[in-house]
Specification:
This protein has 439 residues and is an all-alpha fold. It has one domain (3-438). The chain is 83% helix and 0% strand. It has helices at residues 3-41, 43-56, 66-79, 83-111, 117-120, 128-148, 151-157, 162-185, 190-215, 227-252, 254-261, 265-288, 291-300, 304-339, 348-374, 378-400, 406-438. Helix 3 crosses helix 13 (291-300) and helix 8 (162-185) packs antiparallel against helix 9 (190-215).
């Protein structure tokens, strides 16, 4: 292994070690917060809150793929030791995202007065005004976070992904503390919960941004837009944008579908199972996601041997994941009873489907990290586009015609991911064979 490859591997494992500690704290805080929120809001209002977050999270998909494009451009510039160019990309990215966030805020605030929120959330337990105010408050915080959240692209680009887990620690611990205060001092209030959630997100990003630009002063942006960089970022990001929209439909419509087809109270059971299996998703993400920029760095330096070696390790990790998923499927209901209580009823089929969902998502991510890092994402784009088209119709079919309930929603998502599970591995190994022949 080359000296650069050795340094890259050492940094990769160092990031994993750091992230494990931070993620452990973040996950514990998150899991403590769930029963506190359910107790504070009640099952139906918690279901509304969970669905509301899913809808508002769509905002992040309006960045036109700039975040991913910026990450790849910075990684490439630093690999070529063109740090001044990287700083100019950062300046253009922040300025453009800031303008987008401001425009979206104006539009959302105006449109929010014309949307029948009680119909959207299929509920009358909250007045229209409370639902609208919650959406406005939470959306405002998330749009500000939309801008400050570009720190994610910067930290990933310099392969300091463990600090993103630290950001999650700050956010989760703070929101846990604020929920505890709310539960002791107020009655159930979605607007107040929206403020607590928003403050925790924004503060975490601001702290990390301050650290980053103090540490890497040569990358500190001066807010301006350079035409050539905007074209480059939009060009690199346009395909990511389509993928993001597809992922939006596949991953974030489940709660809204459950709300409309079954009822908001059923979202709670789905969300509890999703968060439980999220432990495994988080764990795999710790291993997998730092490789995006590491693969990009290795590819631009022509180090295909390192890439192959790392892919083999990822497949061994995937084999281990099967055992953990099997154990989680077997133990899920007792864990939920101990964690949340016996009031939450979870079907065995939902647990099984969620386990399959975790496995297929992990499999796809193993290969997606490589193609995302080098920007060869057209096959993934087509697979995601196919999944986006079939996801909602399949979910409705499984619920209404197969009477599968919540498990039918998850099964629809699983089917949406199958084409990618076939296409991505084929693409990755074809690219590696081609590059090795050229080299």
């Amino acid at each position: 292994m080359t000296e650069t490859g050795t340094a890259r591997s050492h940094n990769y494992f160092r990031q994993i070690k750091g992230a494990v500690i931070y993620k452990a704290v973040a996950v514990v805080a998150s899991y403590i917060a769930v029963p506190m929120m359910i107790h504070y809001l009640g099952q139906e209002k918690f279901g509304i809150w969970s669905t509301l977050l899913s809808i508002i999270s769509w905002i992040v998909f309006f960045d036109l793929g700039i975040g991913h494009g910026l990450r790849n451009k910075i990684t490439e510039s630093i690999a070529r030791n063109a740090r001044e160019e990287a700083a100019r990309y950062i300046a253009s990215g922040y300025t453009l995202i800031g303008l987008l966030a401001l425009g979206l805020w104006i539009i959302l605030m105006a449109v929010s007065f014309f949307i029948p929120w009680q119909i959207v959330f299929n509920t009358n337990v909250l007045p229209e005004g409370d639902l609208r105010l919650t959406m406005q408050l939470t959306a405002s915080f998330i749009l500000f976070n939309f801008w400050t959240g570009l720190i994610t692209a910067l930290l990933n680009a310099i392969q300091k992904s463990s600090l993103l887990a630290l950001r999650q620690v700050i956010s989760n611990v703070l929101v846990l503390a604020l929920i505890w205060i709310l539960s002791r001092t107020t009655t159930a209030s979605l607007p107040l919960l929206g403020i607590a959630y928003g403050v925790s997100l924004v503060l975490a990003n601001l702290l990390l941004s301050g650290w980053f630009f103090q540490t890497y002063k040569d990358l500190k942006p001066h807010f301006s837009i350079e035409k050539q960089h905007i074209h480059a970022l939009l060009g690199a990001g346009s395909q990511f944008l389509i993928i993001q929209i597809g992922m939006l439909v596949i991953f974030t419509t489940d709660k809204l579908l459950i709300t409309q087809l079954i009822g908001p109270a059923s979202v709670t059971a789905y969300d509890v199972v999703f968060k439980l299996f999220g432990v495994l998703t988080f764990a795999h993400g710790l291993i997998c996601f730092p490789l995006w920029s590491a693969y990009a760095d290795a590819y631009h330096r022509g180090d295909m041997t390192w890439i192959r070696r790392m892919l083999k390790k990822q497949l061994w990790f995937f084999v281990a994941l099967w055992f953990f998923v099997g154990a989680m499927v077997f133990l899920a209901k007792p864990i939920i009873a101990l964690w949340i209580g016996t009031d939450i009823k979870v079907a065995d089929s939902v647990v099984l489907m969620m386990g399959i969902f975790v496995l297929i998502t992990a499999w796809n991510n193993i290969y997606a990290m490589f193609v995302n890092g080098i920007g060869a994402i057209k096959p993934q784009l087509y697979a995601i586009f196919f999944g986006m088209i079939v996801n909602i119709p399949l979910s409705i079919f499984f619920v209404r015609h197969m009477d599968m309930g919540v498990s039918g929603i998850v099964l629809g998502t699983i089917f949406s991911l199958l084409l990618g599970a076939i296409v991505l591995p084929i693409q990755v190994y074809r690219i590696l064979r081609r590059e090795e022949k050229i080299g």
